[in-house]
Design goal:
mainly alpha, two-stranded antiparallel sheet
């Protein structure tokens, strides 16, 4: 694979990671029902960020992966500040959806803060677990790195996010349902995303 192609794939992984973080935060405002479980909308997209983080780690190394995690958090903070600004400025009298806009996107701030806290803890944990697998278990079995690191990070992310985002606004039974559905959905998506780790070559140290 040519160096140019490697760089392009790496940049796509970074852009996809950040975009998925943002879209997941917005999607999490909706609480849906799937197979009897309560589930926030962001769960359908967010799990892919863990495998994309693994791609970034593999392509650019541990330190760069950590920097991208922090960058995504900063961009999410900018997003929520932007939405808060938009909800505060007066709406034009001809626009009839100001209340709806405020109710939905004005609530993103709590979702985003919860997501950022959960993301930083879980994604940094994922980073350390991924590196631990390489250093202490095996430099081979790339699929194992993804499954190992995600299996540790996903439950951490789900618990932190659900409780910060929804405690006091939803019944505890619903919150625990969200936690369980998050873990199950993220686990399923992880299994399907594992082959992505093979699209980039190992970083040369």
């Amino acid at each position: 694979m040519k160096t140019k192609d490697i760089t392009t794939i790496g940049l796509i992984a970074i852009c996809g990671y950040i975009a998925s973080q943002i879209l997941s935060d917005i999607g999490s405002v909706k609480i849906a029902t799937l197979l009897g479980f309560s589930i926030d909308g962001g769960t359908f997209l967010y799990p892919i960020t863990f495998t994309l983080r693994d791609l970034i780690h593999k392509q650019f190394g541990k330190n760069t992966a950590k920097k991208i995690i922090i960058l995504a958090a900063v961009i999410n903070l900018i997003m929520v500040a932007f939405f808060q600004f938009l909800t505060k400025i007066p709406a034009d009298s001809s626009w009839a959806f100001n209340n709806e806009f405020t109710l939905i996107l004005g609530a993103v701030w709590r979702i985003t803060i919860a997501s950022i806290i959960a993301e930083v803890f879980s994604e940094l944990t994922d980073t350390e677990a991924y590196q631990f697998f390489i250093n202490k278990i095996s430099k081979k079995h790339q699929w194992g790195r993804v499954l190992f690191s995600n299996a540790i990070a996903l439950p951490i992310d789900s618990i932190i996010f659900a409780f910060i985002a929804f405690i006091g606004t939803l019944p505890m039974s619903v919150i625990w349902s969200i936690v369980l559905s998050n873990i199950l959905m993220k686990g399923i998506i992880t299994l399907f995303s594992v082959p992505l780790i093979y699209i980039v070559p190992e970083r040369e140290n």
